[in-house]
């Protein structure tokens, strides 16, 4: 795609501008589940585990990836949207807690997983030069929609009670189907060469850099979510009132949004492998986390929170846009699905581990330091990735990746759609 | 120093001294029950009896400070749920002569004649009023007045604990069940009752209908009314009453009953909008694809001609060829 891609929204611009808007919309749609589910579940039974709903439940992830590889992202995302809406619809008729958990957790959760991975992966296929920025912008959707939907859901709850609110949220979730409809099928050169989902999974599991990358991201994920879960409690330990503490969380969320967009732009502007930027942001996030226990004064805490928000937001788009550099755009769906499934283990372990450390030591110092250590360990593993120390821009051509992966020496036909 | 005799606490002076004091304060009414007709001689054993009866009640003490410059009357709210002995202390500081200050106590608007003491230490004047509150008749507002040039007033308001329900109406659907909760902080009422009202008349709920109303509360300080099989007639106001030894407290809760049609209309509206969006997107896509296919046939033909003429230029034109191919295939 040439530079015209981003400067024009798709009013008559045709195919080029459309993918960006699609992905922005996907971000907004995807945020519906994040904001909605936590709020409603919190309201219904104040379950702290509701924070887990924020992270995409990734066990159906590989299924979604396999299906996307075979059929393209569009049918998978549309089906996911229907599933998600159906789950909410059934939940509005729930008569027991089990019913509620099953409908939202299983049905809607699977639906969300089916939409999240393919849309994020297909971004890397549509964009090659503005990949990071597109990913960054798409990921802002979650944060923005949380801001926008939170008051909306309060309003829904106060006018329609939880049953009516769930019903209407289900209708809103159906917009994921519309977002999915925007994802036009795309055929890239290396698609036939990398084979079907099974072959891709097998080749990925033997791909050294990909495995190292998965390990790095799992470590990063373990430490990543801890402040989200424990920052407010830590502030209350330091005798902060609930209102300024909640305000500080909002500040972190805003700097997170800014960080995502800034890092996305930076990832495209700076030549060279994106792995270096990822390592930079991860190290900075780890350092700011480890410094949290040291800061006592309010100004220091605010500064650290802004720094944490910015750097943690900054590492997300780069983490996703780095994957196609490693495995190529042909295997992106399976790669992302597998990656999500493994790294979510880290995410699920992180918060309980931190809570356990808190119970054992009496304050959050150990939790924050351990989180920082995990992040630094993850960034350390990133150094072992190939081309890390290259100074020129080794924009990996699809041909190179495919030959590297499949060990074939068949000369490939000319480049097809969607490539520079 | 002026000092008026009065019972200050669980003291038990010798009966002889008491008799003397009673003879001195001959016309004063008995303090506990407010019966002005009791004679001083008979008030002695009554008072002793009452002091013995109520000495096991908890004792509370409350303070109000006033100065000559207090502009607004100072009020203090006291929440009582059990009978207790209460000491009300007002202290007054002024730059003038404390001996010229006139002190009075009033309950609501009725002047109180006994049961208070006045004491001056240094530049502060204290007045202490003791009252035993055993039923709702003794609840109310007790005020101390310090009269110098201006009258300064301090008021103690006795109240039973307030109930908290929900400020916003509770929304529920036909056929659903809901729980109305009334609670108060740190209280243990003798009894809880529920009433419903449409308008101004409160009607007690028929709790015998076990499949409709169930009242229970896990703690003493709350009550829960569970209403099952809700219908449209259940809409309205519900009142929970808490009965204390010293009075009653009530709170109003509102129930709004909606039918399923209410959220269904916006639901169907949004679904229709999504279906429309998807249809528009898919149709636009088919339309643009058709448009591309038609001129593409013409372009491809031209492209083939150009390729044949470019072939002779060799490898340098690979880049241009790629770019041209790209613009065609996109």
From TrEMBL, chain A:
Sequence intervals crossing the membrane: 76-94, 100-121, 133-154, 160-183, 210-231, 243-262, 274-294, 300-320, 332-353, 365-389
Alphabetized, the UniProt keywords read: Cell membrane, Golgi apparatus, Membrane, Symport, Transmembrane, Transmembrane helix, Transport
**Stored InterPro entries:** MFS, MFS_dom, MFS_MCT_13, MFS_trans_sf, Proton-linked_MCT
Residues of the Major facilitator superfamily (MFS) profile domain: 1-396
Its cellular-component GO annotations read: Golgi membrane; plasma membrane
User: Which superkingdom does the taxonomy of this entry point to?
Assistant: Eukaryota
Please report the record's description of how this protein sits within the membrane. Answer: Multi-pass membrane protein
Which GO terms of the molecular function aspect are on file?
Answer: symporter activity
Tell me the compartments it is located in: Cell membrane; Golgi apparatus membrane
* Its biological purpose: Proton-linked monocarboxylate transporter. May catalyze the transport of monocarboxylates across the plasma membrane.
Into which family does the record put it?
Belongs to the major facilitator superfamily. Monocarboxylate porter (TC 2.A.1.13) family.
Stated name of the protein? Monocarboxylate transporter 13
To which species is this protein native?
Equus caballus
Q: From which lineage does this chain's organism come?
A: Eukaryota, Metazoa, Chordata, Craniata, Vertebrata
Q: Which gene encodes it?
A: SLC16A13
From TrEMBL, chain B:
User: Where exactly are the transmembrane stretches of this chain?
Assistant: 267-284
Entry's CDD domains? Answer: Ig
* InterPro entries registered for this protein in UniProt: Ig-like_dom, Ig-like_dom_sf, Ig-like_fold, Ig_I-set, Ig_sub
Q: Where is the composition biased (Basic and acidic residues)?
A: 294-311
Q: Give the highest taxon in the source lineage.
A: Eukaryota
Keywords, in A-Z order: Cell membrane, Disulfide bond, Glycoprotein, Immunoglobulin domain, Membrane, Phosphoprotein, Repeat, Signal, Synapse, Transmembrane, Transmembrane helix
Q: How does it sit in the membrane?
A: Single-pass type I membrane protein
Every copy of the Ig-like domain together lies at 73-144, 161-256
**Database matches in PROSITE patterns:** IG_LIKE
Q: Which Pfam families does this chain map to?
A: I-set
> What's the name of the protein?
Embigin
Taxonomy of origin reads: Eukaryota, Metazoa, Chordata, Craniata, Vertebrata
């Amino acid at each position: 795609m040439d530079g015209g891609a981003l400067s024009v929204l798709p009013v008559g611009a045709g195919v080029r501008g459309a993918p960006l808007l699609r992905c922005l919309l996907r971000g907004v749609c995807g945020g519906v589940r994040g904001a909605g589910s936590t709020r409603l579940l919190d309201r219904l039974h104040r379950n702290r585990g509701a924070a887990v709903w924020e992270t995409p439940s990734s066990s159906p992830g590989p299924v979604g990836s396999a299906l996307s590889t075979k059929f393209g992202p569009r049918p998978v995302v549309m089906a996911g949207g229907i599933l998600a809406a159906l789950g909410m619809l059934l939940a509005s008729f729930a008569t027991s807690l089990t019913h509620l958990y099953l409908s939202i957790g299983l049905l809607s959760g699977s639906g969300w997983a089916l939409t999240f991975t393919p849309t994020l992966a297909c971004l890397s296929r549509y964009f090659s030069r503005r990949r990071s920025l597109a990913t960054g912008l798409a990921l802002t959707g979650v944060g923005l929609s949380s801001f926008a939907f939170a008051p909306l859901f309060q309003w829904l709850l106060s006018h329609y009670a939880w049953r009516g609110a769930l019903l209407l949220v289900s209708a809103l979730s159906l917009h994921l189907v519309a977002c999915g409809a925007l994802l036009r099928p795309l055929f890239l050169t290396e698609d036939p060469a990398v084979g079907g989902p099974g072959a891709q999974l097998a080749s990925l599991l033997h791909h050294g850099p990909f495995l190292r990358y998965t390990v790095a991201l799992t470590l990063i994920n373990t430490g990543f979510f801890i402040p989200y879960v424990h920052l407010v409690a830590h502030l209350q330990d330091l005798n902060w009132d609930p209102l300024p503490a909640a305000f500080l969380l909002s500040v972190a969320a805003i700097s997170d949004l800014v960080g995502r967009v800034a890092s996305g732009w930076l990832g495209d502007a700076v030549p060279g492998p994106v792995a270096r930027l990822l390592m930079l942001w991860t190290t900075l996030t780890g350092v700011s986390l480890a410094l949290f226990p040291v800061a006592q004064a309010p100004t220091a805490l605010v500064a650290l929170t802004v720094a944490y928000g910015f750097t943690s937001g900054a590492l997300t788009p780069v983490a996703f846009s780095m994957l196609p550099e490693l495995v190529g755009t042909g295997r992106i769906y399976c790669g992302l699905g597998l990656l999500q499934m493994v790294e979510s283990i880290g995410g699920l372990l992180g918060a309980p581990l931190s809570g356990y450390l808190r119970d054992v030591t009496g304050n959050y110092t150990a939790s924050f330091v351990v989180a920082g250590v995990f992040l630094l360990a993850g960034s350390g593993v990133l150094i072992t990735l190939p081309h890390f120390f290259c100074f020129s821009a080794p924009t990996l051509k699809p041909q190179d990746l495919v030959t590297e992966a499949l060990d074939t020496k068949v000369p490939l036909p000319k480049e097809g759609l969607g490539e520079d | 120093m002026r000092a008026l005799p009065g019972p200050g606490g669980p003291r038990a002076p010798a009966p002889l001294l008491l008799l003397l004091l009673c003879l001195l304060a001959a016309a004063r009414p008995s303090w506990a029950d407010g019966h002005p007709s009791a004679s001083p001689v008979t008030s002695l054993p009554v008072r002793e009896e009452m002091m013995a009866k109520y000495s096991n009640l908890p004792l509370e003490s409350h303070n109000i400070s006033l100065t000559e410059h207090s502009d607004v009357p100072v009020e203090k709210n006291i929440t009582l749920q059990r009978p207790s002995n209460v000491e009300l202390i007002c202290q007054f500081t002024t730059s003038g002569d404390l001996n010229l200050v006139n002190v009075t106590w009033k309950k609501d608007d009725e002047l109180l004649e006994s049961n208070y003491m006045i004491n001056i230490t240094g530049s502060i004047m204290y007045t202490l009023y003791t009252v035993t509150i055993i039923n709702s008749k003794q609840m109310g507002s007790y005020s101390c007045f310090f009269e110098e040039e201006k009258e300064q007033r301090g008021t103690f308001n006795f109240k039973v604990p307030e109930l908290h329900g929900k400020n916003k109406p509770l929304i529920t659907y036909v056929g659903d069940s809901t729980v109305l909760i009334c609670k108060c902080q740190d209280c243990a009422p003798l009894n809880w009752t529920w009433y419903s009202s449409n308008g101004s008349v409160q009607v007690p709920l028929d709790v015998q209908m076990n499949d409709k109303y169930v009242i229970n509360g896990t703690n003493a300080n709350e009550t829960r009314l569970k209403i099952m099989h809700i219908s449209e007639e259940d809409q309205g106001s519900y009142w929970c009453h808490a009965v204390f030894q010293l009075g009653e407290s009530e709170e109003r809760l509102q129930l709004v009953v909606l039918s399923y049609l209410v959220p269904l209309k916006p639901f169907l509206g949004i679904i229709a909008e999504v279906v429309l969006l998807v249809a528009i997107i898919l149709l636009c896509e088919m339309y643009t694809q058709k448009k591309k296919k038609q001129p593409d046939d013409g372009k491809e033909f031209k492209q083939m001609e150009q390729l044949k003429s470019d072939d002779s230029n060799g490898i340098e034109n690979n880049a241009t060829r790629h770019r041209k191919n790209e613009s065609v295939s996109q």
